[in-house]
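Contributing: when you submit paired examples, paste them exactly as shown. First protein:
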Amino acid sequence: MRKMTSFTGIVRPVVPVLGAVLLAAAVSGCGGKQQSTDQEKETPAAAEQSMETEPVSADLSTAETTAAAKETTAAAVKETEAAAAKTGGMKIVRPEKPADGSPLTFIGEPFYEGKIENEDDALDAVMSVIDLLGGNENTVLEPIVIRPNEDGTVYYTFRQLQGDVVVYAATVKLVADADGMAVALISSLAPGIEAAKMKDWGVTDVQAEEIVRKETEDLDLEIVEGATERTLLPFEDDASEFYCAWVVYTNNVYTDYDTAYLAHYIDAEGDYLYALPVAEPGNADALSGEGSLLYFQGLEKDTWTGTVKKHDGTEKEITVPILRDPETGEEYLGDLERRIICADYADFYYNDSITERSRENGSWADNELLIYDTFVRVYDAYLDAGWEGPDGDGSPVLLLMDWVGEDGEPYQNACYAGRQSGFQVFQFNRLDPDGECTDIIAHEFTHCMTGTLMTSNIYMNEYGAINEAFSDICGNIIEAMLQDTEDKTWLIQENGTPIRSMSDPRLYEQPEFVWDQYYVPPVMTATDNNDNGGVHINSSLLNLVGYRLNEAGMELPDQLYYWMNVALAMTPRTDYAQLVDLLPWSMEEAGYPEYKDTIRDAISEVGFENTELPESAPADSGMLAYECPFYVSEMDDSMDAVALFYNVDTDKAYVTWPDYTTDVVAATLPEGYYVTSLIFADMEEGDMLYAVLMDDGWEFFPEAEDLGDVLDEREDVYICFLGEGEITELETDTLKTALENL
C-alpha cells in the first residue's frame, strides 16, 4: 500500500509555477531482483562495416552474397531503429566497474533500455547494475519516496535492508526522464550486505534506552519515545563491514550545531558506542501526528504593521501576518495560511507546552518581529521556487523564540531543530540579530529542505560539510534575491558579525582547497572538539564552488533552482568524490549546459579529488605531520584527541586532529616556528590533558590548564622551523610510551 502526500515540484525560473503533484511514499518492502540488460545495439554504420569485412561463403554467388549482405544490413538497421525508438534515440551504455574494483556511486548517462513507469520498473533498472554498485542478487532494496520534478523527471529513492533492518544511510536514487528513460543513478549502497536473517539480539530496545540513560545520567537528556530503532552501521566510515546496533534518540544539549537530537548507538551486546548529532529521528514521521493543526483552529488571520528598531538603532517598518482570537480579541504572532506559530522556547522544552507569542503591554519584541518577518519572506522565496514550507509539504512551522538554558541564560545560536510534535521547529536567541541576517534564517530553513530531499544526512566529515555548504549557498542566494544585502563577496551574517566568507575563506580560518591552510581531515567519532569532523570548517570548499557560479553571472533564481536539483539527486553519503560527477551532470540536467565548464573549473580549484595526503606542500605554505597510530586502536572511547600547532612568532594556534583513515596528524601552515601539542579531552568529565613534543621526545603535563603553562615553565619545548614548500615529519616514537607511562 502507499501513502499519498502532496508535493510541489521544484520550479525552473523560466517556466510558470506548477500546481501540486503527487509524491508517493511506499511503505511496503520489495524483494531484490536481478535483471540483465540487452547488449548495446550496433549503429547502421557499424553494421555495414561489419558486413563488408565478414568472410563470404564460397558456395554463394556474388549476387546471392550481395543480397544476403543487404538483407542482413537491413535487418541490423531495422533493429537499431527499433532500439532507438524504444529509448528515445538515446544511446544505452552499461558502465564498467572501476579498475580498482571499487563500487560505482554515480552513473550519469542512459544505462537501461526498459521504460520506467513506477517503482518496480525503477527497481529493475537498479538491479540491472547492482553488481557495479557493490551489491548482488541478494541485495534487498525498499522504495521509500518518489519525487517528480516540474520538467517530468522523476527521482526514485530506495533504501537498503538486511532482513527487516535498515542499513544506515544506504540509499540509491534512480533518475528517469519525462520519457521514462533511466538517465542517472546515484548510490550510497553498502557493499557486502545481504538479505539473510539476522541473529538474535542480545538486548531489547527498552534495555538499549536504559543503557543510554545510565551512560548520560549527568546530562539533561530525554529519550524520544517510540523512535528507537535497529540499524546496521559500518565498522569504519565507508567500510564494507557492518554490525548490528540500536539507535536511541534524545534531545541535543550541545548548542554548537544545527541539530536538535542526538542519536546514541548501542551494539547488539549492549555496549554503548557513541552519539552523533542528527536533525531528527529516523522514524520521525511516526511521531508527527496531526495535533499541530489544532493550534490554528478557531483563529482568524490578520496583519500587523508597525515600526521596529534594529540592533544598530535604525528603524524599519514591517507588515506581518498575525493570528486573532475572535472571542477574546487576543493577537498572536503567527500565520494561518503558512501555518506558522511563534512560541516560547523554554515553555516548549522545559514545560512541554506551546505558549504562543501574544502581545505584552500592547507590543511584541522587536527582534522577534524581525525574525518572524524574515522567516515569512524566506518561506515565500522558496514557495516561488516550487517548494512549500521548510519540508516542501507545507507542514506547520514552530518558531521558538528566546532560546535559553534551564538557568535562563541565552544560547547565542540559531538552528533547525527537526520535526517535533507535528511541527518543523526552528530556534532563535535574543542576542544575535538573526532577524536582520536573512542568510542565517534561510540557512536554517535550507537545512530542512536538504534533509527532506536527501532523506537524511550524516552530520559529520565530508557529508556534514556539504550539508552546511548547501545552507550557506542557498542562504546567500535567498538573501540576495530578497535584496536584503549589498554584499557582493558572499559573507555569512554580514548584517550582524560576519562569521564566514564564501569568496575568501581564509579570512575566517577556512580552507580554499583540500589540504589548504585550515583544512581538516575526517574523524571516527564526531564531537564538539572536532566540529563533527570539520562540518563548519571544510564547508568553505563547496561554498567557493557556489560563489564561482554566482561570479560567472548565473541569475540568482537559476542558481537556487540548480542547487535544489543537486540536493534532490544527492544521497546521505554523497561525498566530494561523488560531487565531481554529480555537479556537472545536474547542471546539464537542470538545463544550463553553458555553466558546466564553470562548475568543472571550480571543482578543480577546490580539489575535491585530492583528499589523500599530498606529496608536496601547497604554495605559500609548508606541512607538519606525524603518525598517531594508537589514536583509534588504543584510546579510551571517552577520550577525544585534538592536535595543536602553535606559532610562537604570531601567537596563533592552528587546530586539526588525527585522520582516522591513516592515523596521521597533518596540517598545512604558514612559514614560521611551531610548538607541537596533542590535547586529549575527556568527553565525560570535560578535563583536558596536554601532550607536548619536547627536545627529548613527547611528554604529558597532567597539571597544565593550557599550553601556555608548559611554555612558561619549561625551556626544553621543541620548536620546529617550517619553511614554505617543506613537509616536515615529526618524531612520534616516544608518544605511545609517554601515554603508557601516564
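Second protein:
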Amino acid sequence: MVDVYLNEKYVGVVDNSNEFIDTIRKKRRDGTISPELNISYNEELNEVSVETNKGRLRRPIIIVENGVSKLTEELIEKIKSGEKKWADLVEEGVIEYLDAAEEENTLIALDEEEITKDHTHLEISPVTVLGVVTSLVPYSNFGSSSRLIRGSKIQKQALGLYATNFLLRMDTDASILHYPQKPIVKSFMHDAFGYDEHPSGQNLTIAVMSYEGYNMQDSIILNKGSVQRGLARSTFFKPFSLSEVRYSGGLMDEISVPDPEVKGYKSEKDYKNLEEDGIIFPEANVGTDDVLIGRTSPPRFLSGADEFNVAVTTRRESSIAIGEGNKGLVDAVFLTENDEGNRLVQVRLREQRIPEIGDKFASRHGQKGVVGLLVPHEDMPFSDKGITPDLIFSPHSIPSRMTVSHLLEILTGKVGSLRGSQIDATTFDTPDEGELRKELLGMGFREDGTEVFYNGLTGERFKAKIYTGNIYYFKLKHMVANKLHARASGRIQLLTRQPVEGRAMGGGLRLGEMEKDCLVAHGASLLLKERFDSDKTIVHVCEECGLIGTYDSYKNKPLCPRCGSNSKVSSVELSYAFKLLLDELKSLMVYPRIKLKGKF
C-alpha cells in the first residue's frame, strides 16, 4: 500500500503506485486532467505526491514513448508552415511540463540519436539545460561549468544601456556605457533576447602575451590610445534626495539657504552653488563637502521650560552635502511631493568614468581582470600588419582555468571582423574550428591565429608568435573610484570606542589575521601596535581584588570600589572592548579578576 498526498495533504492509499501514476499521466496527456498537474513517486518514503500548487518551477520536455520521440518530422514541418503552434503540441501530448519532483522519475535524452527504450523524455534542445543569461555565452560547451556560472554572473554586472529612459529615473547605482557594440561572436539567444538593441560590451583587439609583468595573475593591460579614443568610457549617476518633514506640534523642515545663525552652519563656500530657493542649479560642478540641497530643521528636543526660551527659535542645519571622495556635475533636479504630501527634492549627480588602473573588465567566459597598466599607444607591441591591440591578456590565465572557449572566441572574432559579419557560436552548435582556420588562411593570415609581433619600446621582433584576434569584453560596475577609501582618525562608536564601519560613514579599515601576518612578515610589528590600539584605554586595576577601580578627582588618586582607598591600584593599558566584556560579565554576577605581574 502506497500513501497518496495531494498538495502535501494526505488523501488516501493505492495498491499499485506505478499503475496509478501511469493512469494519471495518460489522462493529463489526453487533456482529461489539467496539464498543470504533476505527479511523482518518492521511493524512500514510499509515497506518491500530486502537486497543483502555484509557484512551482516547471519546464517543457518532449515526450518519448517506446524509444521514439513524439515530435515527428511531419509535426516540425507543420510548425514551420504555421499550421501548428506551441499550445497545440501541449494539448496533443507531444510536449509536457515537468516540475523538479516529477523530473526525478524520468530519464531525459539530450539528443534524438541518444534515445533508447529506457528514455521517457527528450530535451527540446541541448541548450535548454542553460538559463537565459548563460546561453548568451558562445562556445560554452568548451568551458567548465564553474567558469560558465562566473560568465553568467559577470554579464549581470556589465555596463551597457540598462534602460532607455535612464534620464528620467533616479536609480541608486546606475552607469551607462558610452559606445556599446553588438558582439561579433554571438549565440542564438542574442537574437531571441533582442541583445543587439541593448548591448553591454565592446569588441576589442586582444593579444595573449606577457608584458613587463603588469598583467600577472588576473591583471590586464589597456592601450592608453584606445582609452583616449573612447574605449570603455561610461557615465556614473548618483542620486540624492531630501524632503521637508512635518513634525508633531506643527513644526516642520524648511528647504532654503541656511542662515549663518543656524546651529551647525557650515562655511559660506559650502553653500556657494545654492540658488535663492536653497536648491543647487543644474550643470553645477561640485566636489567634496559642497551642499546640494539646503535645509534647516526645528530643534531636536522641546520641553515645557523651553517654551518661553529665546533658544526655541534657533533651528539646526540639516542640509544634504556630497560625501567624501564624490564629485561631478549636477545632471538633473526634480521637485515633487512624497507619499505624505511633503515637498521632495531630488538631485542627480553625473560623473564621466574613464578606465583607470584598478577598474574591472571581463570576457564572457569568466575571465575577469583588473587594469594593471595603461600603456601609451606608441609603446604598445604591434603586429607585422601594423595592428596594435587594445588589451593585453596574460597567457597564464588559461591553463589552470581551462577556458578553451575564450581562445576560440578570439579566433572566431578575428574571422568575423575580417569577414565583416557576426558568427553564431551557440552552445552544442558551434562553427567548425577547421573551417574557420581555412578561412583565416584564405584571408592572408596564419591559420592558427598567431602573428609576428614587434616590441613597441625597442622595435625588436618577438621570438614567439603572439596569439591575437577579437573578443567581446565587458566593463564591470566595480570601478576603483567607488571603492577608494582612506582614513586617519575619525568617528568612533559610542559603545565600543572603535572606529565606525563602512566607507560612506568614513569608517575604519579592518585589519584581519592575514593582514596582520603580512605586517609581521615585513618586520613592521610596531605598525601593528599602532593599528590595533584604536580603542586603547587606561584603566586602574586593584592589585588585591583584581577589579577595575576609578579615579577620585577630589583626592587626586585612583580608588578601588571594593577595597577602599588603602589598596594599591595600578594603571594598565588595555582595549576598551575588553573592559566592556569585563563590565558585561559583572552584570551577569561573574567576578572577572585581573591578576597583574611585573614587566621585569
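If you have annotations for the second protein, write them as plain sentences, like these:
The CA atoms of residues 169 and 295 lie 24 Å apart.
The first strand starts at residue 2 and ends at 6.
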